Structures are given as structure tokens and as C-alpha cells.
């Protein structure tokens, strides 16, 4: 009897939430599962990426246990991520250093490895071309890996595949930047739904509606719905923000004051570097905007 029970318990990874079910990938295949009744009471809400223990009864799994998470993103809701592929388009929608910095802060705060993926390079033309290539160079100088791709011409797409090996990755980015298109370009059999962004903002704008974890390039990757309204950096303390800009961190020991927030303090090495054009002015401006947002949010409570 006891032996039977051991055979019926399996470990796996939640890859999809659908109609109240959790699809769990196990070494023996996918199992449609339900959460055990008392999870909600215990304040546990299983998400994609969670490692779980299942009890299997007539082909339905029952999640008995959610293992401790290595990390967890609230938006998109996904757990146990090794790296985030931050997807920003070179055009349509226009390249936005502001959005990119928001994503970077969010990911840096969780101590998840970010990789920047530029999409729609085929659409880049005119003045935007120089602006985007300067930005790419500047982010590389900070130390970020930046990959330039086009799912249309397939340029650069193959350089994404080796990055996925043995890792769990999440794609994150604004709606319509081409996250699902990139996955389709890497693996046409995925046949993920993609579509033009509608001009009307608001509801019904997201083509991908659920987080789904898929095997790709000898790893797992989560496609996610795009962000449309941006309310992060949420839950972040002001003190924490300055650690999310690696090029500021590299200089902060040279600031006159320990714990310098690089705002109005005298003898600030970060401000000096901005003035000397050694730090991107847009990064510093965005930092200042995030500082204000955090202050305003703190004031509200
Ligand atoms: N020209 C060009 N168009 C692209 C490229 N990548 C994606 N697109 C187009 O951009 C539109 C949006 O692409 P999606 O892949 O649906 O975007 P997404 O990021 O998955 O959007 P959500 O699922 O809503 O978050 C589609 O019309 C794609 O055909 C590209 O590299 N070049
Ligand atoms: Mg999509
Ligand atoms: Zn400073």
C-alpha cells in the first residue's frame, strides 16, 4: 500500500494555468492538475514555474506541495526564473529607453539576470536608426547583453537559442513588441498567436493572454502577455532603487556621502559622470522619475 502511494506521487513544473486547472510537466508527460483545497487558506497561489509535488488519481493530478521559490515575479506571474529576456522593439512601437529602464529596474531588484532583446530591427530607418544604435552601444557599455533581432528577416534570431540552454527564461515587454513572434521564429511549430497592436489603447490589446512555459533550445521559456499600464517599480524602497543601476553602483564609492542617492547631495560622483556624458542622461532622468514615483507612492500610505 505504502509503495503504491509513492508511485502515485510525482514532481513537476507548472507550465500553464487554464480554466481552473494547472498543467504540470513531469518526466512522464503533462498532467492536468488541481490545487489542493486548502492552498488558498494558507495564502499559497501556485503560478507558472512553480515546482510542485503531485498526487495522481485516475489521470488527474492534485498539487500537494509547492516547493520554495528561488524567486518570483508578480507581473508577469512566474516563479523560479534564471533570466529575463527584456524585449523592446526598435520601431512600431518606437524604441523606449524609459520602458527598458523600468523593466531593468524590476529585474535587477529581483536579482534576475537580464538580457535585452531588440526586435523589429528591419523596421528601423531614418533618424531613429542612429538614436537606437547609440542606445544599444550605451547599454552594452553598462554591461548589458543586447541582441538585435528581426523575426521578419530572421536576423539575429538564432543567437537567442544558445542563451536558453539549461535555463528557465521569461520574455517580458510591452504588448506588440514581438515576443510571441520571436518564439515562432525560433520554433515555427509553436504556432503562437500574434497580431498587430490595435490603435485603441485599453482592453483587448494583448494577443498573448496567459503565461505559458515552453521547452525551447534545451531550456524552458515563458511567453507572457505584454504590459500596458506600468505601475512598477512597485513595492520598492527608495534606498533599494540605486542598487538597480549598475553603472551608478560602480561609482557610488566615489560619492562624498555614504548612502548618496545621487540627487542633490554635494560631491556626487554619479552626477559628475552624467555631466561628463559618461552615464547616459536618459538613465539618470529615468532614475529621477522613479525616485519621484516611489516618493509619491510612499506619501499616499
Ligand atoms: N516587421 C516586423 N514585424 C514584427 C517583428 N516581430 C513582430 N512583428 C509584428 O508585430 C506584431 C506584434 O507581434 P507579437 O509577437 O504578437 O507581439 P507580442 O509582444 O507577443 O504582443 P502581446 O502578446 O500582446 O504581448 C505582429 O503584427 C508581428 O507580425 C519583426 O521583427 N519585424
Ligand atoms: Mg504575444
Ligand atoms: Zn552620488
Automatic annotation (TrEMBL):
Q: Which InterPro entries match?
A: G_CP_dom, NA-bd_OB-fold, P-loop_NTPase, Ribosome_biogen_GTPase_RsgA, RsgA_GTPase_dom, RsgA_N
Cofactor field? Zn(2+)
* All copies of domain CP-type G, residue ranges: 70-230
Pfam families per UniProt = RsgA_GTPase, RsgA_N
Q: Can you say where in the cell this protein is located?
A: Cytoplasm
Q: What EC number(s) has UniProt assigned to this enzyme?
A: 3.6.1.-
Organism in which the protein naturally occurs = Exiguobacterium sibiricum (strain DSM 17290 / CCUG 55495 / CIP 109462 / JCM 13490 / 255-15)
What UniProt keywords are attached to this protein's entry?
Cytoplasm, GTP-binding, Hydrolase, Metal-binding, Nucleotide-binding, Ribosome biogenesis, RNA-binding, rRNA-binding, Zinc
Q: What is this protein called?
A: Small ribosomal subunit biogenesis GTPase RsgA
- Function per UniProt: One of several proteins that assist in the late maturation steps of the functional core of the 30S ribosomal subunit. Helps release RbfA from mature subunits. May play a role in the assembly of ribosomal proteins into the subunit. Circularly permuted GTPase that catalyzes slow GTP hydrolysis, GTPase activity is stimulated by the 30S ribosomal subunit.
Q: Which GO terms describe its biological process?
A: ribosomal small subunit biogenesis
> Residues in domain EngC GTPase?
79-228
**Which residues make up the binding site for Zn(2+)?**
255, 260, 262, 268
Primary localization class, coarse = cytoplasm
Domain of life of the source: Bacteria
PROSITE patterns associated with the record: ENGC_GTPASE (PS50936), G_CP (PS51721)
- What's the record's note on cofactor binding? Binds 1 zinc ion per subunit.
What's this protein's family per the entry?
Answer: Belongs to the TRAFAC class YlqF/YawG GTPase family. RsgA subfamily.
GO annotation, cellular component aspect: cytoplasm
Complexes and interactors:
Monomer. Associates with 30S ribosomal subunit, binds 16S rRNA.
Q: Show the GO MF annotations.
A: GTP binding; GTPase activity; metal ion binding; rRNA binding
Annotated residues that bind GTP are located at 119-122, 173-181
Do you know which NCBIfam families this protein is assigned to? ribosome small subunit-dependent GTPase A
Amino acid at each position: 500500500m505504502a509503495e503504491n502511494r509513492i508511485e502515485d506521487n510525482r514532481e513537476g513544473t507548472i507550465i500553464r494555468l487554464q480554466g481552473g486547472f494547472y498543467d504540470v510537466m513531469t518526466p512522464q508527460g503533462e498532467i492536468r492538475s488541481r490545487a489542493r483545497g486548502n492552498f488558498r487558506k494558507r495564502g499559497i497561489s501556485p503560478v507558472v514555474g512553480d515546482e510542485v509535488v503531485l498526487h495522481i488519481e485516475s489521470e488527474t493530478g492534485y498539487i500537494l506541495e509547492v516547493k520554495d521559490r528561488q524567486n518570483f515575479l508578480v507581473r508577469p506571474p512566474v516563479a523560479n526564473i534564471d533570466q529575463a529576456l527584456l524585449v523592446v522593439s526598435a520601431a512600431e512601437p518606437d524604441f523606449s529607453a524609459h520602458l527598458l529602464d523600468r523593466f531593468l529596474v524590476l529585474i535587477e531588484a529581483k536579482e534576475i539576470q537580464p538580457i535585452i532583446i531588440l526586435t523589429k530591427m528591419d523596421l528601423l530607418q531614418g533618424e531613429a536608426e542612429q538614436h537606437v544604435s547609440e542606445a544599444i552601444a550605451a547599454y552594452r557599455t553598462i554591461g548589458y547583453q543586447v541582441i538585435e533581432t528581426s523575426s521578419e528577416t530572421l536576423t539575429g534570431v538564432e543567437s537567442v537559442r544558445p542563451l536558453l540552454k539549461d535555463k528557465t527564461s521569461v520574455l517580458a515587454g510591452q504588448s506588440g513588441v514581438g515576443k510571441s513572434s520571436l518564439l515562432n521564429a525560433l520554433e515555427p511549430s509553436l504556432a503562437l498567436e500574434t497580431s498587430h497592436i490595435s490603435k485603441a489603447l485599453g482592453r483587448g490589446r494583448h494577443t498573448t493572454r496567459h503565461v505559458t512555459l515552453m521547452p525551447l533550445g534545451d531550456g524552458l521559456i515563458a511567453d507572457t502577455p505584454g504590459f500596458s499600464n506600468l505601475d512598477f517599480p512597485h513595492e520598492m524602497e527608495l534606498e533599494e532603487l540605486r542598487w538597480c543601476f549598475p553603472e551608478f553602483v560602480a561609482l557610488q564609492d566615489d560619492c562624498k556621502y555614504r548612502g548618496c542617492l545621487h540627487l542633490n547631495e554635494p560631491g556626487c560622483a554619479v552626477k559628475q559622470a552624467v555631466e561628463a556624458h559618461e552615464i547616459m542622461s536618459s538613465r539618470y532622468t529615468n532614475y529621477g522619475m522613479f525616485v519621484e514615483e516611489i516618493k509619491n507612492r510612499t506619501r499616499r500610505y
